[in-house]
Each structure stands twice: as structure tokens, then as C-alpha cells.
Amino acid sequence: MSKVFLVGAGPGDPGLLTLRAKQVIETCDVMIYDYLANKDFLKWCKPDCEILYVGKKGGDHTLPQDKINELIIEKAREGKDICRLKGGDPYVFGRGGEEAEELVEAGIDFEVVPGITAGVAAPAYAGIPVTHRDHTTSVCFITGHEDPTKEKSGHNWAVYGQSNSTLVFYMGVKNLPMIAKNLMDNGRAPETPVALVRWGTRCTQQSMVSTLENVAADAAERGFKAPSIIVVGGVCSLHDKLNWFEKKPLLGKGVVVTRAREQASGLVDILGAKGACVYEFPTISVEHIDDYADVETAILGLAGYDWLVFTSVNGVKFFWEQMETVGLDTRILGGIQVAAIGPATADALREKGVNPDFIPEKYVAEHVVDGLLKKGIQGSRVLIPRARVAREILPEKLSEAGCDVQVLPVYETRMAGSDVDAVREAMKAGKVQYVTFTSSSTVQNFFELMPPEEFKTYEGVKIASIGPITSKTVHEYGFTVAVRPEEYTIPGLVEELLKD
């Protein structure tokens, strides 16, 4: 039996999506989503999920509501589970009630997954509590755009004008002059504070505060457009005092992340927490190698090695994966010294129950070799689980120091088939300020996907790079590095972006 889930996507911030909504997105057969639903959520869909866009914005309907209803029913009758993803809450100006009625008429099972509505969330992110003891004890949610086919308006302007409630208007920017006039004509004081919040809770959020008599002119002057929430009432006076979200240091800054998708989450999360608009553009993918026979042989012969040197989190991940495949665990490392290049690699080892014997102060091969020599690695048998293709300086220098070194490929990196169009359009629109590179391969693959001649045409885009080797590769393509952290880590990179 098929089922239709009317799912509230929340106002846009991915952290405000409910756990139940994510569960439905991950398991549905068909995804039907709106303009205001964050497209980032689509990455959680199953690989074989059918994804259909039916967005509506400002009168521009990709598919009218009656056709959307027909589409939902058609897909459900194919025996599929449908996620109907709607911005905010499906039952708060989301026409979810109409869709539910159609499903009942068609005899189709359905479930409603409520979402956080923009009328509460957007003001909260702009420092405006919709209720407050010092200002009001009630709030009224109102559509700013009524059904034009209705014979009589559902608005009672006399009640709105004389009430002390906070008024929250959805979809009302085009009608802002009319809304302000009707409220003043019906008793609301001209000096009543009014706030507009555009793209509330997202990295592109903007807000402003004016008064009822001036808000229409002020909003037009500042170019406020849909989608915006309009808030009327004394609580808007708290905007400047409580506006926490718009104080984020990277708010609105567009940052392209070129790391492999498997590795990007840490950087994406940190940048997002600082307010950045992150464009994930993985230029490499991390893949299994075709044959693990040599890896299994090396693991079974670990007792013959003195040192294990891990150069990346992926090296740890794939090495442990094969160790578990042959039925072994961390106990096999007893008596072997372990080195980790970089704090992230060290953390990955600690998660496996291994506290590294050596972590270099700087995370490039030359410094690693010096540190290992001070630890007495000379003459030791050394195993280096790593990518199939990587810099050879570490094994070469260790061999020169008299070590018996075996390089053990446990994974490989390949060029990712990223969709360059989204990043290209963002750059054309001036929405991208930084492109980040964390390895030479990310640089090489980026310029394979976006030729240097094209990249030069996008003004105002700076390059941020981790490590001298990566920066050298950037220079080879004819570009300068504007942001270069002293500490070759993801937190170090973000710190430098904050200073720039």
C-alpha cells in the first residue's frame, strides 16, 4: 500500500528539519517539493528516488495546485510512497489541508509531518519574539495574499487594527502598502514598529525595522522582496537588541567547498555555523581499490612492522575496514608504534582505540620525517596505508634514513562528476566570495571542471588553500592564494577566512 506524507520542511535552516521529516525523505520513492523547501534536503533521498519540482513563487507556477494534486494521486496509485515536501508547515498557509482532502477523496492513505513555520522561526532568527510579556500576550498569523477568486475578503481589518496582538503576515510584500494603510485606517498607530525578514533562518537572511507609516517606502528603498515575513507590533523593537543570527561573521558569504563529499562535512558544518552560504562542489571522490589482496597480506603480517604511519582519515577508515574483514581488530597493533599526520587523522585513530605515538607539529611530509627521526624510526620497518596516488617524499625520505618502507594503497581518489552549473551560476551572480582547496588534487580537478580562463572572468572570488603544496598547485594555474592558514587544518582555514 502506498502512502503520501505531507511533510513540513521548516523555514530553510537544515538544523530545523524534524527527525521524522528526515526519516521520510530518506525512505520515500517519490519526492515532490516546493520552491521554499531547502533543496539541500534532497541529498538524503534514495539513489532511485524520483524527484519532481513543482515550485511556486510570486505567481510563477511551475505546476498549478490542481495539477499538483493530480500528480500526487497519480504517483500514489503507482504503489509508491510519496514525500510531499513543503516549506514551513504544510497546514500553515501551505495548502496542505487541500491536498489532504484530495487524498481522502481518492482513498489514499496519508500522514502529516508538521514543520517549523516561518512565522515563528524567521522573527526568532531576527531577534523578534512573537510574544513577550512587556508587549503582547497573543500572536495572529495572517496571509498577505488571499485567494484572488474569493468573493469576499477573509480579513477583519477592524480587529487587526484595534488588537494589541503581534501580527505576522505571510506572502505580503507586494501588498505591503495596502496592509499598512488598512491597519492605520483601522486604529493601529502610525509609529507602530514593523519588521521584515527575508529568507529567514537561511544564510541569505536580511531584516529591517521601520514604522507602519514608513515601512512600505523603506522596504522599497532597500529592495525587500519575497519571500519575506512581515511582523507588526511592539516586539519588533527588540530586533536590534536580540538579533543574534545576523551577527554571524560569515553571514551571506558564499564559500565553495571542493573536498570529497565523504570528507566535506566538517568544513561544511563549521562554515555553516559561522553563517556562510556553502556550495558543495566535490572535485574528488574517495573509492575502494579493485583488489585488497596485498592489504590483507600486510595486515596478517603486521607483527613484522615497527611503525604504522597514517597520512589521512581515509587511510585509517579503509585500513580498519579491511582489518575487520579478515577478522582482526585493534589488538593486532600491540607492540607497533603508530604515527598520525594531522589532528583529524589522530582523532580517527583515537576513535578506533589507538592513541598515536607521534603527531607532528606541522602537517607536511618534511616536518613529519624530522619528527619521526627524532623518535628513532631509523632502520625500522614502516607500513604507510594511504591513497594509491600520493606524494612520494615521505616514503623516500624514510628510505633514505635507512627504513624499510612499504607503501600500501588502501583507497584511491578519482575525479568527481560534480554539477558545475550551480556553482557557475552562483559565481556569475556574485554570490561566491571564496573557493577552498585542501589538496593539490582538488585544485587540479576543479580547473578540469571549470577551466582557468573561465574562472578568471568571475571577479571578487578569492582562493583559500591549506598547505604550501596545495598553494603551489594553485600558483601553477596562474592564480594567487588570498587565504593561507599557518596551521594546515580545517579549523585553521576557517579562522583565516574570519580574518580576511
From TrEMBL:
Q: Which PROSITE patterns match?
A: SUMT_1
Q: In which pathway does it act?
A: Porphyrin-containing compound metabolism; siroheme biosynthesis; precorrin-2 from uroporphyrinogen III: step 1/1; Cofactor biosynthesis; adenosylcobalamin biosynthesis; precorrin-2 from uroporphyrinogen III: step 1/1
Q: Which Gene3D superfamilies match?
A: 3.40.50.10090, Cobalt-precorrin-4 Transmethylase, Domain 1, Methyltransferase, Cobalt-precorrin-4 Transmethylase, Domain 2
Give the matching CDD domains: HemD, SUMT
- According to the entry, every stretch annotated as the Tetrapyrrole biosynthesis uroporphyrinogen III synthase domain falls at 268-495
Q: Does the keyword Plastid apply?
A: no
Q: What is its EC number?
A: 2.1.1.107
Give the UniProt record's GO annotations in the biological process aspect: cobalamin biosynthetic process; methylation; siroheme biosynthetic process
The record's section on InterPro entries has: 4pyrrol_Mease (IPR000878), 4pyrrol_Methylase_sf (IPR035996), 4pyrrol_syn_uPrphyn_synt_sf (IPR036108), 4pyrrol_synth_uPrphyn_synth (IPR003754), 4pyrrole_Mease_sub1 (IPR014777), 4pyrrole_Mease_sub2 (IPR014776), CobA/CysG_C (IPR006366), Siro_Cobalamin_biosynth (IPR050161)
Which residue range or ranges hold the Tetrapyrrole methylase domain? Answer: 3-215
Q: Name one Pfam family in it.
A: TP_methylase
Q: What keywords is this UniProt entry annotated with?
A: Cobalamin biosynthesis, Methyltransferase, Porphyrin biosynthesis, S-adenosyl-L-methionine, Transferase
What's the top EC group for this one?
transferase
Q: Which residues form a coiled coil?
A: none
Name the domain of life this protein comes from: Bacteria
Name one molecular function that GO assigns to this entry: uroporphyrin-III C-methyltransferase activity
Q: What is this protein called?
A: uroporphyrinogen-III C-methyltransferase
